[in-house]
Amino acid sequence: MKRHFLIIGQGLAGSILTKTLIENEQAVTVVDNVSPQSASRIAAGIINPLTGQRMVIAPDVSYCLPAAIERYTSLAEEFNQSFYSSRQMLRLFNNSSDKDRFRSRKDDASYGEYLGEAFDAGKSGEPINDSQGGFKQKHTGYLNISLLLDCLKEHFKKYATYIDGQFDYDELEIANNAFHWKDNRFDHVVFCEGANAVNNPWFRWLPFQLSRGELLSINSEQRLPTSIINKGHWLLPLDEYRAKIGASYSWSWTDETPSVEAKQDLIRSAEEMVPAATPLAITDHQCGIRPTTKDKQPFIGRHPQFRELYCFNGFGSRGGMLIPYYANCLVDNLLKEKSLPTSVDVNRFEETKTLVVRARRYLSENSGPGDIVIDATVGNGHDTELLARCVGESGHVYGFDIQQQALSNTHRRLLSAGLSDRVTLIRDDHANMLRHLNGEKQKGISIIVFNLGFLPGSDKSYTTSAQTTLQALKVASQLIQYKGSIVVMTYSGHECGKKETELVHQWKDKLDRKVFKCRMIDAKQKRDAPSLLIITKTKE
Fold first, then answer.
1. Do 285 and 307 lie in a common domain?
2. What are the residues whose beta carbons fall under 8 Å from the beta carbon of 306, sequence distance 6 or more?
3. Strand (E) or helix (H) holding 417
4. Which of 150, 182, 267, 450 sits at a 20 to 30 Å CA gap from 95?
């Protein structure tokens, strides 16, 4: 049966998914606003089955890598272009620990297919600084993503409906298990929007962990190596005298412009890898935001409530290798109702063990533009940032914490997200919330969230106090408006947390059931696990 799909985003994820749907004779409309910070447009496209300094191979490599190469080869034949080229990678040792790790991996049969032979200092055969030696890595290569996306864009203009423009979430209407946008009806909507997913009102609750990456395009008057060179950063030769060097990783930033620090760091790394090629001429400096995820797995599948809304995102720096296989999985799920791999299915967050994500989903679905909300324990700012996105430019968030470190961490996070003007951060105990809200603001609080316990990454002996938490909850029950909610995450893994949890439950049991509705969710499969308490005001 032919269905009509609306695909949001024409990055690599959206493009490969759209092409797969077209090949399955489905009707597709693609909407994309080409952003200069699009991770797909900036990504170098290196395919590498081993990730990180520890050279870890993910379980999905064995089936994702062959699927990727097959897909890019077939597209090359169809468009008479060269998109993917197999390219050897030389991984250089930094120290004896790298050598020991290589030997350990070499003895592991699961790594044998991907690890070539080691070479001694000065024996790489390339004009590089290999003073510590290194090893040859197999099944690596380079995908020209920009060329591929340009070819697919022209293809979509012939075989699908392609719209070059900004997608406005408010314009999507949901009625009778169908979606309407700009006078068109769609059976399914799939969001493939990369880092912008953190603003998506249906999927912003997912635990994205965005990272900023930068790379340089360089020229040299001397011949460059022919292999990809990896020594913390990578050097990707494009021809004899041109290359790209990257990529930086940054988890906080104040804007999306390329940074001087990252540029200097990349130049130093390039000069260390190819000292004979210096001085290097920089021809371009690019910066993009990667849609990485907290558990390092993609986010694929349907929305828990709106069953025909889908997410296909979160591939991070491994997107070139992962996307073709998982696009096939999603299409099989959409058209043949085949189950998605549990490791990538967004429904993995419906399990009780992920109470933090369930709390985020509740906050996302129960706060909106114009709301005034309170984060009573800002911590590192994760809930504060989410709430700031939810309330929009017309709403406001008040964030409380008694630790300056927590407020500083949160302020940096909000600056990175461009949301600091929507939030007022207050250094005070949450029991004193009333002191900082004038009369008008006291009448319209829609959400108050408490994430109890200690500040992650800090002194664990410094936790929220049971007595002041009870005082704060009493204040919250006065502040919250009709149909508003108090959301409380409690932790029983330490003695202070056990006492605090017990007192919170006792307070909850004494609430007037004619005015408040209480719902408790426990992670019962774990001893001393967290619990999620949601209190909704049902009467004026």
1. no
2. 174, 202
3. helix 404-417
4. 267
Task: Give residue 526's pLDDT band: very low, low, confident or very high (50, 70, 90).
Answer: low
Distances (CA, A) of 145 to 44, 94, 286: 8, 30, 15
179 shares a domain with 30: yes
DSSP secondary structure, 252-266, as one string: --SSSSPPHHHHHHH
The 3-state secondary structure of 352-376 reads: HHHHHHHHHHHHHHCCCCCCEEEEC
Give the separation between CA 439 and CA 436, rounded to whole angstroms. 10
Domain that holds residue 246: 88-139+211-290
Q: Does residue 46 fall inside a structural domain?
A: no
Strands 531-537 and 56-57: unpaired
Measured in residues, the chain has a length of 540
Enumerate the β-bridge partners of residue 136.
90
**How far apart are alpha carbons 520 and 255 in whole angstroms?**
40
The answer for 45, left when phi > 0, alpha when psi is -120 to 50, beta otherwise, is left
Is residue 42 domain-resident?
no
Average pLDDT over all residues of the chain: 90
Judge whether 215 and 34 are in contact, CB under 8 Å. no
How many folded domains does the chain comprise? 3
Q: Which amino acid is at 9?
A: G
Burial class (CB in 10 A: 0-12, 13-18, 19+), 166: exposed
Q: Residue 361 pLDDT more than 80?
A: yes
- Report the percent of the chain where pLDDT is more than 90: 72
**Rounded Cα–Cα distance for residues 18 and 203 (Å):** 20
Q: What CATH code is carried by the domain that includes residue 487?
A: 3.40.50.150
- Tokens 């001085």 sit at which residue? 279
> Given strand 178-181, what is the order of strands in its sheet?
173-175, 178-181, 184-186
Q: Please give the Cα distance from 407 to 379 (Å, whole number).
A: 7
pLDDT band at 350 (very low <50, low <70, confident <90, very high): confident
- pLDDT tens digit sequence for 140-187: 999 999 999 999 999 999 988 899 988 999 999 998 778 999 989 999
Rounded distance, CA 463 to CA 459, Å? 9
Strand partners, 284: 217
Residue scoring higher pLDDT (454 or 39) = 39
With 0-12 / 13-18 / 19 or more C-beta atoms within 10 angstroms meaning exposed / middle / buried, residue 536 is middle
Contact 50, 27 (CB under 8 A): no
Residue 216 and residue 68 share a domain:
no
Secondary-structure percent of the chain, ordered helix, strand, coil, rounded to 5? 35, 30, 35
State the average pLDDT over residues 427-453: 85
Tokens (6 digits) for 406: 């927590």
Characterize 7-29 residue by residue with b for buried, 16 or more Cβ atoms within 10 angstroms of its Cβ, and e for exposed: bbbbbbbbbbbbbbbbebebebb
